[in-house]
Specification:
Elements (H helix, E strand, L loop, with lengths): L4 H17 L3 H7 L5 E6 L6 H5 L6 E6 L9 H13 L4 E7 L3 H7 L7 H14 L1 H5 L4 H22 L1 H8 L5 E8 L4 E9 L2 H10 L1
Parallel strand pairs: 1-2, 1-3, 3-4
Antiparallel strand pairs: 4-5
Helix pairs in contact: 5-6
Length: about 210
């Protein structure tokens, strides 16, 4: 109960498997990390970032929270973003939501959910802004799916509007922000065809969202 032996055994097997295939893997990993990607995703346990894209430890810098939000006052997320952009010099920020997100579903509901409602207010604002278009969809599942997508697009915009990304673009640093969504039903990623690499592209996305 206090030591969770199954998890420690899983860890030993995992480490042994990596050492067997790449004997110097952990010594190299301990020396440095050089990821090209920052993943901003949902905390949902069904959405494991590295596994979804088939990358090993050291290849993907990760930040996760409920609803994959990027909020201008969240210094946790912004600190991760700054470290990734300014120190690790990552080239891609991937904002990845997922269909059936519990946070998005809660934001659509009029029922109270406690403390988390303060956090989900940001998604609820998107819902109210887009409510006419969402209400025109055939059913609740389609509305939830579409709001999950709209939330990703909004967070791509939020990443682009941070001083961190604006400064990086201003000094000519190569940096792209991508909007993706993951389908729990089949394990596949969908590209939302949202990618911004400059202030001009960000302005166009904001004007057309």
């Amino acid at each position: 109960m206090r030591t969770l032996p199954r998890l420690f055994e899983n860890n030993r097997q995992w480490a042994a498997s990596l050492r067997a295939s790449q004997p110097d893997f952990f010594s190299k990993l301990a020396a440095s990390q050089t990821p090209e990607y920052l993943w901003i995703g949902c905390s949902d346990s069904r959405v494991p970032a590295n596994e979804i894209v088939g990358l090993l430890p050291g290849d993907l810098f990760v930040h996760r929270n409920v609803g994959n939000l990027v909020i201008h006052s969240d210094f946790n997320c912004l600190s991760v973003l700054q470290y990734a952009v300014d120190l690790l010099k990552i080239k891609h920020v991937i904002v990845c939501g997922h269909y059936g997100c519990g946070g998005v579903k809660a934001a659509m509901s009029a029922q109270p959910h406690g403390l988390v409602d303060n956090w989900l207010r940001h998604i609820r604002d998107i819902y109210h802004r887009q409510q006419a278009k969402l209400d025109a969809l055939a059913n609740e599942t389609e509305r939830l799916h579409r709001l999950c997508e709209l939330n990703v697009i909004e967070q791509v915009i939020n990443v682009g509007n941070t001083t961190i990304v604006q400064d990086a673009w201003g000094r000519g640093q190569e940096l792209a922000i991508h909007g993706w969504i993951y389908d729990l039903a089949d394990g596949l990623l969908r590209n939302l065809e949202v990618c911004v690499t400059s202030p001009r592209e960000l302005d166009l996305l904001q004007a057309n969202r």
